[in-house]
Amino acid sequence: MATSDISNALHVESPCVRKCTLDSDDICVGCYRSIDEICAWGGADNDQRRAILLQASARRESNSRSA
Fold first, then answer.
1. What's the whole-model pTM score?
2. Which of 16, 39, 45, 57 has its CA 20 to 30 A from that of 22?
């Protein structure tokens, strides 16, 4: 099995850190996912989850720069 096949087969874990509070833009202050991304997580495949994680990471980075 190729490395990419293995990484695609691995389960992508939730970034939830149990600080589930939404800001005024409906973004979780703990994991930086939007409410729509949180709701979609359970039905998302690994590629979709990785895309959500990238968006959340970009939000976290943007938030840390503006703080």
1. 0.80
2. 45
